Amino acid sequence: MMKDALIEKLRNGCVVSCQALEDEPLFGSDIMSAMAVAAEEGGAVAIRANTPQDIEAIKKRCSLPVIGLYKQTYPNSDVYITPTMKEIGAVLSAGAEFVAVDATNQARPDGLQFRQLLERIRYMHPKAIVVADISTYEEGVKAMEMNVDIVSTTMSGYTPYSRQSKDPDIGLVQRLAALKKTPVLAEGRIWTVDECLQCFEAGAHAVVVGTAITRPQEITKRFVKAIHRRNEHASNYSAK
Ligand SMILES: CC(=O)N[C@H](C=O)[C@@H](O)[C@H](O)[C@H](O)COP(=O)(O)O
């Protein structure tokens, strides 16, 4: 499928992020590919997945397009989402149609500017659809001006200078989508159906939901916390 058709396929849909790091209970490509199949059965339009291993396994079992990334940390940089050409190449070789790349203003491990990295991606991987993961409006505008294919609000709240909040950054989605230049994915801390719908109202091209669907330990915590709050309230009340 051509780039535009693939981007169009995401429109008004739910992208499910199926990620588990090594220290998480669901770590492993078998489990992540089962998650992806479940998301496909549920009607997701695409999968967001981390590591070449997971992407390959997902591609074998699931027919949806994949937004691939490869989290890697380098000692000289805070950029960890598909930071260099090495990880970008690995994600694309694994079969991802889209590659998500950190496009924040933070210094990159290879010393390149995002603009230079994008030029290299375009040259080396002309078919790749580039998703720029940004944390602020200014970074989003900059990425759009560089003609990335998609902008995603992934990093809002995860750079020290961006808006810090436990809620999704729907305002950022709204401001970027209003430019009507590049499709905007709403991503990060989307927990409820209402928040998801608000992202579409704000002009999102698609909504990416991860933790709220695929991290059961966090889903459990949410219930347990609410129960604890309720129990505390109940015991305060009965003590009176
Ligand atoms: C900041 C960062 O590293 N975000 C990562 C990007 O791929 C993932 O850990 C998130 O799960 C993903 O963005 C979806 O977000 P949420 O899980 O909040 O729905």
Automatic annotation (TrEMBL):
Top class in the EC scheme: isomerase
CDD domains on file: NanE
The keyword Isomerase belongs to this UniProt entry's keyword annotation: yes
EC number: 5.1.3.9
Matching InterPro entries: Aldolase_TIM (IPR013785), NanE (IPR007260), RibuloseP-bd_barrel (IPR011060)
Keyword Isomerase assigned: yes
UniProt-recorded name of the protein: Putative N-acetylmannosamine-6-phosphate 2-epimerase
Organism: Paenibacillus spongiae
UniProt gene name: nanE
